[in-house]
Amino acid sequence: MKVTILGNYPPHAYKGLIQGSDREAAIKAILESVGGKVSGMMFTRGAYDIVVNAEVPDQADGMDLALAVRASGWVNDLVVLEDST
């Protein structure tokens, strides 16, 4: 199942960003923990700080992904959109 993930970094995460944390590796690790795979990633300015296109095995894994991201504490305003095609 294809998903698009939108999110914003909370204030405490900015310190890690300034120090050069590897955001891509962290995102890939969370996706892989639920059997997912990143197909594209953008760090943006505007309504969201990050946009990730990914694939997860099924809807249950998509729910697990949302829970894992929220539990990490590194993203606020998380939106996970499922591809309906």
Task: Chart the SSEs and their pairings.
Blueprint: E1 2-8, H1 13-18, H2 23-33, E2 37-43, E3 50-55, H3 59-72, E4 76-82
Antiparallel strand pairs: 1-3, 1-4, 2-3
Describe this protein with a few key phrases.
single chain, 85 residues, alpha+beta, Alpha-Beta Plaits, four-stranded antiparallel beta sheet, 4 strands
Descriptive report:
The protein has helices at residues 13-18, 23-33, 59-72, and strands at residues 2-8, 37-43, 50-55, 76-82. A hairpin with a 6-residue loop joins strand 2 (37-43) and strand 3 (50-55). The protein is globular, with a radius of gyration of 12 Å. It is of the alpha+beta class. It has a 4-stranded antiparallel beta sheet with strand order 2-3-1-4, covered by helices on one side. The chain has a single domain, classed as Lrp/AsnC effector binding domain/regulation of amino acid metabolism (RAM) domain (Alpha-Beta Plaits).
Quick recap of the structure?
This protein is α+β, with helices and mostly antiparallel strands. The chain has helices spanning 13-18, 23-33, 59-72; strands at 2-8, 37-43, 50-55, 76-82.
